[in-house]
Amino acid sequence: MAPVMDGDLARQDAATMAAAMQGGEVTSVEVTQACLDRIDAVDGQVHAFLHVDRDAALETARGIDELRSTGAALGPLAGVPLALKDVLTMNGVPTTCGSRILEGWRPPYDSTVVERLRDAGVVILGKTNMDEFAMGSSTEHSAYGPTRNPWDLERIPGGSGGGSAAALAAFEAPLAIGTDTGGSIRQPAAVTGTVGVKPTYGGVSRYGLVALASSLDQAGPCARTVMDAALLHAVIAGHDPRDSTSIDAPVPDVVAAAKNADVRGMRIGLVRELGGEGYQEGVRQRFDEAVAILGDLGADVVEVSCPNFEYALAAYYLILPSEASSNLARFDGMRYGMRVGDDGQASVEEVMSQTREAGFGSEVKRRIMLGTYALSSGYYDAYYGQAQKVRTLITRDFAAAFDQADVLISPTAPTTAFRIGEKVDDPLAMYLNDIATIPVNLAGNCAMSIPIGLAPEDGLPVGLQIMAPALADDRLYRVGAALEQALVDKWGHELIEEVPAL
Amino acid sequence: MTSVVNTRMDFDQALERFEPVLGLETHVELGTASKMFCSCATEFGGEPNTQVCPVCLGLPGSLPVVNAVAVESTIRMGLALHCDIASWCRFARKNYFYPDMPKDYQVSQYDEPLCTNGYLDVTVPTDDGPREFRVEIERVHMEEDTGKLTHSGGDTGRIHGADYSLVDYNRAGIPLIEIVTKPITGAGALAPVVARAYVAEVRDLMRALGVSDVRMDQGSLRCDVNVSLAPAGEPWGTRSETKNVNSLRSVERAVRFEIERQGAVLSEGGRIIQETRHFHEDTGETTPGRSKEQAEDYRYFPEPDLVPVAPSSEWIEELRTTLPEVPSVRRSRLQVEWGVSDLEMQTLVNAEALDLVEETIVAGVDQAAARKWWTGEFTRIANEQGVALADLGITSAHIARVESLIADGSLTDKLARQVFEGVVAGEGDPDSVIAGRGLAVVGDDSTLMAAIESALAEQPDVAEKIRSGKVQAAGAIVGAVMKTTKGQADAAKVRTLLLAHLGVEG
Amino acid sequence: MAQISREEVQHLAHLARLELTEEETAHYADQLSAIVEAVARVSDVAAQDIPPTSHPIPITNVYREDVAKPGLDRAELAAAAPSWEDDRFKVPRILGED
Fold first, then answer.
1. Which of C11, C19, C72 to mutate to test the interface with B (most CBs of B within 10 A)?
2. Among A428, A448, B166, B485, which one has the highest count of C-beta atoms within 10 angstroms of its own C-beta?
3. What is the ipTM for the molecules in this complex?
4. Domains (ranges, CATH) in chain B?
5. Angle (nearest 5°) at CA A343 between A342 and A348
6. b or e along A2-31 (b: 16 or more beta carbons within 10 Å of the residue's beta carbon)?
7. Least-confidence region, from A319-323, B253-257, B289-293, B361-365
8. Best residue in C19, C59, C67, C89 to probe B by mutation, most B CBs within 10 Å?
9. What is the CATH number of the domain that holds A226?
10. Smallest Cα distance from B34 to chain A, Å
């Protein structure tokens, strides 16, 4: 039998690594070391990581190898390395959320996601870069400098989870955790040619996820293949009594769905409002080709309309800042993190204000003020109240669309990766990146982005978004895996193989 | 201290010209084992910052989960206050920065309280006898307490002039129930007493429900007292809000003071400023705090980290069946059952002896005896020792035992008091005390007869007087017998035996 | 419409405890005005009879048993605190209160 693995260890996907470890071909320490070596080699250019937890990662890997040698039953991802977005707490490991205000803070507790990763024997390599407090679509708003897109180092890797997506595309890790409030898993996946899933709201515990907008945030799996994402999804999902909004129901069998990979007879809805004008030519072209492939695979492609989606962006940029302005109030320099201006004379109010002024970046301050405005008396009904009604309308649009289709699809982002600096102080232009991903967060259902090729005009990856009803996350994997398989067959290799050497 | 000088108007004069309108917001810590949104302990007096976790410290990433007993307690309190219980309501965030609040917002309820529209009847004494007042309840809701600040530096130990403050978050997140009244009008001169009686009734009700032991000495009940004076013929005046008044007496004094202060301001043509005020126990005065005219903007919005509370009607009805009798109803019932006067009832209430007397009666003791022991001898001992009546160590079983010994002549009243002295002193139950101190009545006829005969022999002249029919003289012999038996004989029995022995009719 | 003045920005910054510079105040006044104008279109569509959605997935009645458990190690809190004294978090003086 041919070896499961050949070539560079770090370039393998998680399922292949896991099979090789199970077959005794490699150890977790070897795989982990390969990723750490790759990080050493390329992260100076990519800057995907804010903190590499080298010793602890190797320690965990050794522990898994020992366990495996005793014949203990291990989970399917035991020993596989992973990059963790720096917005999830990990006991004793720095958690900055890309912000100066939390520089040096080491949380005294594990998030539920981390706890489940540890229980599954996943090796956490370190913490990945992100837009400060997950506010952004480019990772340029990190206080620790931008992450670069491995496809073109002058371009953004998407955001806010640009670090996690870039780590995958640069082969620094086969798996990553992201969080998605308005597209922060899917849009980076799209622009880096990787796979990202935003599970159903409440599907993955938010305990230990430093909140941006509590009613929108959701952690999810990032990987280079649909199957890897499914394996990771199965590890982190499921009810958690520490998160009141966690869904107390069985997790759909996403791994079986990824294996099934059959769209015959499925109704796939094209959302009329998510496409066309405002979408880059090459994005539209690759999307249309993917739709044709789905038809060829036996899916029944229909067009659906979600007329209220055009108000989603506006509602989102009221709800998100409102919740964020409250969630970020606790960063006041009193109990942990940075404190500025405490000279023994200044009042507590002055010290709080100076700390927050110095500790937060411009986008964070902008959104805090926007949210403060939207919630203040006299404006609440006109802004926050109305936005919540739009939310109801969007949920109704989805419900109507899912009457006609099992899943909906659209381009994940209107454009491919833009250049670093291009939109950094043009918030409205930046916000448009999320136009196709936001409706899902507002309604709480689930979505996936998978790579569907490179735009002819710039040679950069294009993503396709699959959206499914709440709690039907398995449909994402069924469709995603089918399309991925068809594309790999067409190309003769995975798209990620085309990423330029660093 | 603030330098503001308060002018006051005579209370009665103020009431001649103005009608006081009250509003009371009472915050009480619930007696749950764990906090409102996390599993930290709620015990009072723990070492600073030892009862805290990521949730109640507001650490990044932490999330709240509602304590089931806190919801249940609030519903039960709402039912006891005759409120409507919401079938669906949410928590809200009240946003403002303050170092005693770990998240810089308080999780509370805003426009969707769990309980609304109730009432509580309170009785206040007047010159014309007790008068009942119905206090209408606007709402009852749940929220979380803040941490405790200690102010250091400066010379007053107060927040004003302090160099810095220290925060202990043990109290942060302890569940609070907030009970808000509708405006209380028509109390007139009784307003201060009504306010006090209302807070006392709320306290008693919470204790009766077992939802809180309401330790006012530990600050577990705090009252915000709103007072306004309406000029004759007008429905409202501008109100002041006196914050954090934490004893019954202070509530009464604060209302009285505000009536006198506002009366003086209004009489001089001044205007009441809508503001927060602070009550000072030492002077009995209030002084201004923050002016409400720079209105706080709390930016309330539904708490997204918590899901709605939607108690089913089945659950509410089930909780309704667990309600104890309302304290005021119970008092009326007991007064009738025991046939006691208003004054006697007041004595029992003041002595906090109602529960104890009732238990004692249940244990089989005659109600008059039960009342006599608790409001007489035991209250005296409790006052002397400075402990609560209930903490004396005397149980209803003890009283029942002693009363049965009195009934069969084994103990006299005087001996019984000595028995209880022994119980309080920790000498064990009544039988142990009797044995230990040798307190049994000398009841053996032959022993008594021997003592009688020897006394008669010592006082032959007295014996002669008795024989001749001067029965009054028997006292001297009885006294002598009591002396030889060290008081442990039943004097009446000695007398009977003596007279029979001498063949004289008693 | 919806022009947000510098004074309003200052007020918001105060509510949010942000000590903005003059420059930032001016910059944010323009940007917030533009953003607010863009998002104000939520008013175009949402009619009276539409119920608001605060939670995307309708779950109710999630409670915890009332059981006390041990909390965090105080030494860890002290180590993370910007300032600590006498087993408590030390914070600057509080003004504006009696």
1. C72
2. A448
3. 0.96
4. 11-45+60-146+175-307 (no CATH), 325-437 (no CATH), 445-502 (1.10.10.410)
5. 40
6. eebbeeebbbbbbbbbbbbbeeeebbbbbb
7. B289-293
8. C89
9. 3.90.1300.10
10. 15
